[in-house]
Amino acid sequence: MIHLLALDASSRACSVALLRRPDGGEAQCLTRFELAPREHTRRLLPMVDEVLAEAGLSASSLDAVAYGQGPGSFTGLRIAAGAAQGLAYGLGCPLIGVSTLAAMAVGSHYRHHCRYLITALDARMGEIYVAAWQCRDGIPEALLAEAVMPPSRLRLPRGHEDHDWVGVGSGWGLWGDMPTEVQAAISQHLPDVEADAADMVRLAARAYDAGEGCAPHEVQPVYLRDQVAWKKARA
Fold first, then answer.
1. What sign for the dihedral angle of Cα 35, 39, 44, 49?
2. Bridge-based pairing state of the strands 13-21 and 2-8
3. Once rounded to an integer, what is the mean pLDDT over residues 210-233?
4. pLDDT range class, residue 23, cuts 50, 70, 90
5. In the structure, what pLDDT confidence band is assigned to residue 74 with cuts at 50, 70 and 90?
6. Nearest C-alpha neighbor of 96 from the set 225, 226, 210
């Protein structure tokens, strides 16, 4: 039996998911999800306790801990990473970072049966965090690498302009600032979708099976904006 826990606090939502997978059996998932702006610190660990109690497990049963590594709210990313790191240290288990943008793509792929998705989060300061994906059988393939940019600079992935695209996430609240060619390619946009640990834990299970977990001290939130600033400084 494999037990994986995922935590996310990258947006207005706070979520926890516990995946239980018997050897050779079908995985089951217990979840908590709340829209709780500025309440992540207070709610995240109690939600962990709730799913463990519902499963009848102690934290010592966990094989790995995953967290929403970003991009997203700087404060929220640090809260989830810190909580996940503390659990993993205490349990001596691997830590798995999961992209919030990839998780949103996979969740929308399952729920809306769409294959080509552009996930975008409002990054404030007139910018978005964005990536484009092709999803097959729950596996996201990046067609546009995660980046931070003004919405006016967004372009469709080269060679994929004619696909039926779906826009996902709060960044699509800036629809009016998107280029006309991007607007024309989007069949629907879902600006209210938030990252969810329930989607992250399934991606984490694939990473765990591939041996991709890291040591707790290697926790690394993905801010994107800091990376861009560093690259500009080095240019």
1. negative
2. antiparallel
3. 75
4. confident
5. very high
6. 210
pLDDT tens-digit series, residues 155-186: 999 999 999 999 999 999 999 999 999 999 99
* pLDDT, mean over the chain: 93
The token pair that represents 202 in the structure block? 């399934």
With H, G, I as helix, E, B as strand and everything else as coil, classify residue 18: strand
Backbone φ/ψ region at 110: left (φ over 0), alpha (ψ -120 to 50), beta:
alpha
Q: How far are the Cα atoms of 23, 66, 100, 172, 224 from residue 203, in angstroms, in the given order? A: 18, 9, 11, 24, 21
| Nearest residue to 39 via CA among 70, 81, 74, 75 | 75
Which residues does 125 contact at the CB level (< 8 Å), separation at least 6?
none
The b-or-e profile of 194-228 (16+ CB within 10 A means b, else e) is: bbbbbbbbbbbbebbeeeebeebeebebbbbbeee
In terms of DSSP H, where are the helices of the chain? 40-55, 74-91, 100-112, 180-185, 197-209, 225-234
Q: Which residues pair with 167 in a beta bridge?
A: 118, 189
Closest CA to 39 of 3, 14, 63, 8: 14
Q: Are 136 and 117 in contact (CB under 8 A)?
A: no
The encoded tokens of residue 56 equal 């009848």
**Both tokens assigned to 115:** 């294959």
Q: How far is CA 178 from CA 3, 15, 78, 158, in A?
A: 42, 30, 30, 17
How would you class 77 by CB atoms within 10 Å of its CB: exposed for 0-12, middle for 13-18, buried for 19 or more? buried
CA-nearest of 100, 53, 106 to 223 is 100
